[in-house]
Each structure stands twice: as structure tokens, then as C-alpha cells.
């Protein structure tokens, strides 16, 4: 099994950010309705007064007001599927796993199109409330072992971020993806 981070790794840039911005252009009035809370929570997050989960909830609050989120996501991925990095498509395998900090409902349509499994941050797609911790760092390892046996063999792991070192340590070999998602290089030994 090969495991891949998603944002800035096999999809460049970040699917959460691009989906929020894409939605803001399509539904500006809905987005403006949620902007005050988003701005306030952004400041609180920068001041380290709230966790990342509360920031993400406010960033995705607009989904509560969309008439058909699933339809929006299908259209978003129709327009952005070509942003999947070519190096990944050349080596993709059926037993690949994507593990992402983005909300599961955002990445799931693309994982389905790719025909691979997915572990991602759990967020209610009706309320935009997080169900547990953000799927990053050590939480990725915890979530991985919640779904796979401890002796699962991880051949390779790919990510754009050294914060994923806990996952990289599970793999026989790990790669850091650089050059805006274009080039996998060996994971730094001192990470």
C-alpha cells in the first residue's frame, strides 16, 4: 500500500481553500453571511485562542446554506480534476490510500473518481461541525490504525509537509513533494 497526503501533494494547491474560494465566487451572498464569524475565528486562531477545528468550522459554515452540496462538489471536481498531479496518475494503484486534513466530504468525490480509499477530517456536511480532531500530524497515524491492522505494510508515503513525519515513519520509504506538487524527493533524514 502507498499512502498519499492530498493537498499540495497529489492535488495542487489546496482543495479546501480552492473549494471555499470557488464557492464564494458562485454564492457571494451566502459567503458574506458567514464572513463575520470566519473573520472573528481567524483572529482568535491566529492568537492561539481556539483550535484549528473551530477555524475550519467557520470556513465551511457556508455549506449550511447551499441548496445541494453534493451537486456543487461534483461541479467543483469537474472543473478541478485536471489539477491532480501527473506524477501521481502515472504511478496510481488500486490499493492507494489518501489521508488528508481536508474535510472528507470535499475530497471523497475525487477519491471515488480515482478509485482509491480515503481517510480525512470528519466534518458534518449539513452543519459544518467537526466530528473529532483535524486529521493531521499524529492524528493521521491514529486514524490510520483505527482502520488498518498494526502490521499493515506501508510501502511508500508522500506528503508536502514535514508535519506528516509521524506518517512518514510508518513507511518503508517516504517522499516530500516539492515544486508546487510536481516533484517527489526523498524524505529528509533529520525530519
Description:
The protein is an alpha/beta fold. It has a single domain, classed as Rossmann fold (3-Layer(aba) Sandwich). Helix content is 43%, strand content 17%. It is built from 8 helices and 6 strands; from the N terminus they run E-H-H-H-H-H-E-H-E-H-E-H-E-E. The protein has a 6-stranded mixed sheet with strand order 3-2-1-4-5-6, sandwiched between helices. Strand 2, helix 6 and strand 3 form a beta-alpha-beta unit. Helix 1 packs antiparallel against helix 2 and helix 2 packs antiparallel against helix 3. The longest helix has 19 residues. The two termini are 22 Å apart. The model has no long low-confidence stretch (mean pLDDT 97).
Brief characterization of the structure:
This protein is α/β, with parallel strands linked by helices and about 190 residues long. The chain has eight helices and six strands, in the order βαααααβαβαβαββ.
Described by the principal axes of the CA atoms, the overall outline is globular
Helicity range: 40-55%
Give the biggest sheet: 6 strands, mixed
CATH class: Alpha Beta
Considering the chains and any ligands shown, give keywords for the structure.
six-stranded mixed beta sheet; Rossmann fold
